[in-house]
Amino acid sequence: MTSRFAAADALRAALLSGAALVGLPPAAALAQTVQSLPAISVVASPDEPPMLSGAALGGSGLAARRPATSDAAALLRGLPGVSLYGNGGVSSLPVLNGLAADRVNLLVDGAPIAPACPNQMNPAMSTLSPSRVSRLEVLAGITPVSVGGDSIAGTITVESAPPVFAAPGEAVHGEGSLSAVYRSNSHAVAGAATASVSDDMASLRYDGSWSRAGNYRAGDGRTVHSTLFNVQDNVLTFGARRDGHLVTLQGGLQTMPYQGFPTQRMDLTDNRSGFLNGRYEGSFDWGTLDARANWRRTRHTMNFLEDKGGTAGGGMPMDTLTTDAGYSVKASLPLSARDTLHIGNEFRHTRLDDWWDPVAGSMMMGPQTYWNVKGGTRNRIGTFAEWEAVWSPAWTTLLGLRNDVVWMDTGAVQPYSWRNPVGMGMMAMANPDAADARAFNARHHGRTDVNVDLTALARYTASDNAEIEAGYARKTRSPNLYERYAWGTGAMSSSMNGWFGDANGYAGDPDLKPEVAHTASATLALHDAARKSWEVKLTPYYSYVQDFIGVDRIGALGDGFAKLRFANHDAILFGANLSAAATVYDDERFGAVRLSGTVGWTQGRTLDTGDALYHMMPVNALLTAEHRLGGWSSAVELQLTARKERVEALRNEPQTPSYALVNLRTSYQWGNVRLDAGIENLLDRTYYPPLAGIGYADYRAGGRQGTAGPLAGPGRSFLAGLTVTF
């Protein structure tokens, strides 16, 4: 290979020979509850995540970003190591250091949420609105085994607001809020309401939200098709506490009547989910206990909305029904002044049915129901132990071991028809799904994976101004139900599976092996002694992934799109994240000015072919200048993205040009009233986000002329928001 990969290849060889790096977080931080940060900031504090390379967002930082989006995942923008796959308007997929979708351990109030759609139209962060997010935390790359398994990219935790209780001496406490937002591009409107009542031992809270938008406009004035959405959420939370023990019960319903997907062949035409969560937190003489249980049921329907030719009662209905359930139990046991032991166990169950009803009058889509996945089950039980040691004020270490057993199965399937709709003589050519179904049903479907994870981390505090953290992690992820059990290789059937925004077709492989990632990373943090005025952090990383789940090409769909099958290929990823912040001016009369920024660089390739991995973000930066004076808070953002030249040829991934965007925002807090205003894409630039995928809906609306190009991002949008608390 070329010389620029020589260092990466040498590091891969070192990892395989056992020359693993060791390192980790401050011991005390892992054992305590992490508090919300006052704003988006890369400056470390004792309340930040338990790793130098981690990042957190809460408090006023979340409040400043909520008016600009109805997509909870978009709140992560600007955190080191994070980028976003394009998807629907409220359903983008977070990417950590080049790895996305199921490779990210994404926990919403402690629970993972499995895909309930072959296109991942309802990913985990789409299940709650931005108004309900109280805190976000990102641990990219190396993560302690106590924060989850069955993932190789890292962990994102999303927490809604905890119960609020009356203050000592207050008989009854009541509070609430009302908010409304308007965004000019797409004429998006959103509203949210909260109300809670409590005494010092019990609390009841309601959260409701609604958001709707039409198709947005690109910078050149054209409408970007299939970007509309409509979603409503209603959630009740009950809390009870006594003598150091807290119980939280939460239940809710989400209704999504429609959501367009500009990069997919289908749209979401109905999505309804209900959930129940329970949590117990307790402190004892021997340590702390955190136990959670969750249940969720999702009913999802895909079809064509108007931009893709949909008509009332017609089209091609596709349905999914998914049930998620599980628990997790974690305990922290202080063994001595130096040593703390973290132990835990969790169980996760998913059942998936994915079927496509016959279409009346269609020879190709009938007369039977097509079963994409029938009675699919995925169960996982995981157990971990983690030893945390504070050797001296300068040295802390963490060593963790985890085992996850994953067992999967599915039932017999069937195509729309076992017969050739245009004549038996051409059955193999015209109806490949019948042959695929027979071959699939003749196989044994059950699979069991025994996965082992290991994390070793160390942190050295060199002085009041410098810290170094380094580590190695072995992380494992088993395939999801679609990667193993989506069986059809026909042009239509395969094109309905895939969450990559490329309009290609995908088929599964029951014999896929789990992905095993060996990751080495180090973080250098420099800051002022008080950890308030300035900080610079640099985190280079390298991952060698055995049996990375990529693709092999098995045919063509026409119009330049490919037919692909999931397949194991070894791969490497490497890059670096740089973040910095500094207060450059602070005066009582004129306020405080703070500059901050993040820069990210990621590359990845498949080892046997040398082809670039799909959707690797090119060099990018987000630079922010903030000003605060009394109740005023304002910011100017400069978003810079380099040209994307390295693309995966196998999936016909398009290149995208470089661009620079300017965003403005301001807010004013006056008593219990907050006003927000801003302009996104101030200069109304036409640009193409590198990870947005292809503009399939625009390509279809344009009569399928030429080749489908990358999806254009939104043009200039004015936003205004009002929040009243009481």
Automatic annotation (TrEMBL):
Its main location: membrane. Residues 211-682 form the TonB-dependent receptor-like beta-barrel domain. It holds the Pfam family TonB_dep_Rec_b-barrel. Keywords: Cell outer membrane, Membrane, Receptor, Signal, TonB box, Transmembrane, Transmembrane beta strand, Transport. Residues 1-31 form the signal peptide. It is found in: Cell outer membrane. InterPro entries: Beta-barrel_TonB, Beta-barrel_TonB_sf, Plug_dom, Plug_dom_sf, TonB-dep_rcpt-like, TonB_rcpt_CS. It is a multi-pass membrane protein. Residues 67-155 form the TonB-dependent receptor plug domain. A motif (TonB C-terminal box) lies at residues 709-726. Transmembrane segments: none annotated. PROSITE patterns: TONB_DEPENDENT_REC_2, TONB_DEPENDENT_REC_3. It comes from the Bacteria. The keyword Transmembrane applies. PANTHER family: OUTER MEMBRANE PROTEIN C, TONB-DEPENDENT OUTER MEMBRANE RECEPTOR. Belongs to the TonB-dependent receptor family. This is Iron complex outermembrane receptor protein. It comes from Azospirillum picis.
